[in-house]
Amino acid sequence: MPALNRVQIIGRLGKDPETRFTPTGKKVTQFSVAVNRRWKNAAGELKEVTDWFNVDAWGHLGEICQQYLSKGRLVFIEGRLQTDRFEQGGETRYFTKVIAGQMLMLDRAPEEAEAISEEEEIEEPPIE
């Protein structure tokens, strides 16, 4: 029987990415992404909820995320879901995260946006 484990999210980073190393020396970059959902309820009121996703990016993709992403950036993440299990206080707990396979930045870095707006403000004299 075929199987599929794929997730796609578009949202904003909740904090700057953090890079860590596993005990075997592999590099992983971790960050969270907030995805807003909006709808109208039966009374016609606008409701909004934010879903938070923890994301792990391994290897070269993790290096790119560490270098270019920061809190508040709009990103598209595609990957797979992974659920880890651990014991805490005698109870088994589960933690689901997204293992990123692809990342696209959907907005400009703040520095780039400032540079573009400064260029647009310069008015050139008319050519005679």
Give the strand order of the largest sheet, numbering strands 1, 2, ... along the chain: 1-3-4-6-5
| Helical/strand content category | alpha+beta
Mean pLDDT: 89
Q: Helical proportion?
A: 10-25%
Q: Which regions contain 5 or more consecutive residues with pLDDT less than 50?
A: none
Helical region count?
2
CATH topology: the name is OB fold (Dihydrolipoamide Acetyltransferase, E2P)
The count of DSSP E runs of length 2 or more, i.e. the number of strands, is 6
What is the rounded distance between the termini? 74 Å
Number of domains: 1
Please report which band the strand proportion falls in: under 5%, 5-15%, 15-25%, 25-35%, 35-45% or over 45%. over 45%
User: What is the CATH class name?
Assistant: Mainly Beta
User: What characterizes the major β-sheet?
Assistant: 5 strands, mixed, barrel
* Gyration radius, rounded: 20 Å
Order of helices and strands: EEEEHEEH
Give the CA-based shape.
globular
Give the full name of the CATH homologous superfamily: Nucleic acid-binding proteins
What oligomeric state is this?
Answer: single chain
Second CATH tier, the architecture: Beta Barrel
